[in-house]
Design brief:
By secondary structure, this protein is mostly helical. 74% of the residues lie in helices and 0% in strands.
């Protein structure tokens, strides 16, 4: 058991760590707003510090660089998207798919600059941004597989079909946020329909993976 002296020594460090984490989270929240529809190259560190009303050195202290700050912002906002995709287990499968796709589109709509960075791989070839993108893809594939087949561990053929669909969603969503001629509802329903086609293709090639009822032509 710690003595009062030991507890007194520990508590300030704990409080300091909590304050540091809270300050870091606050800076990320500010950054999410700044980069919501502004590209990475469009904001300098001076711009960021001025608009965030903080000293530039504070951002360097927590994130080491502009790139480190931006990646922390992207990871934080994407974590919300991945958590959303993984939730809603109590819903019927078809409702969960609609909810996941709608949430995905909302994310792209509300974080356009970050979405473009993730899908395009960042500035040049950025392995960390590619890893973030791959994580989002896997979360979406897992959600669809659980809803369609009741499990995430699926055959290479079924996974490739869902991966192809997700990649198509990325390209279509990029075009949609650049030229929003369709409502989010119409876009969501279109993506749901194309997902049905992908699931039927899997069944045609491998009857062990029967398309769920909502995706069937005769449903």
């Amino acid at each position: 058991m710690n003595t009062p002296h030991q507890r007194a020594a520990v508590c300030p460090r704990t409080r300091g760590t909590e304050r540091s984490a809270a300050r870091r989270a606050e800076l990320i929240a500010i950054g999410r707003k700044l980069f919501a529809d502004t590209s990475y190259d469009a904001l300098s560190m001076d711009d960021i510090a001025r608009q965030a009303h903080v000293a530039k050195g504070l951002i360097y202290y927590y994130f080491q660089s502009k790139r480190g700050y931006y990646l922390a912002i992207v990871r934080d906002s994407v974590a919300d998207l991945v958590a959303f995709a993984a939730s809603g287990l109590e819903l019927p499968a078809v409702d969960r798919v609609h909810r996941t796709i709608d949430g995905y589109l909302r994310y792209a709509e509300n974080h356009q600059a970050a979405y473009r960075t993730i899908v395009s791989g960042g500035v040049g070839f950025d392995a960390e941004v590619h890893a973030i993108r791959d994580g989002v893809r896997e979360a979406i594939i897992a959600t669809i597989a659980e809803g369609a087949y009741g499990r995430g561990d699926i055959s290479p053929l079924a996974r490739m079909s869902l991966l192809s669909w997700v990649c198509g969603v990325e390209g279509a969503t990029l075009d949609w946020i650049d030229r929003p001629r369709l409502s989010r509802t119409a876009m969501r329903e279109l993506l749901v329909k194309t997902l049905g086609g992908a699931l039927r293709a899997v069944e045609e090639l491998d009857p062990a993976y029967r398309a769920p009822e909502p995706a069937r032509r005769d449903a």
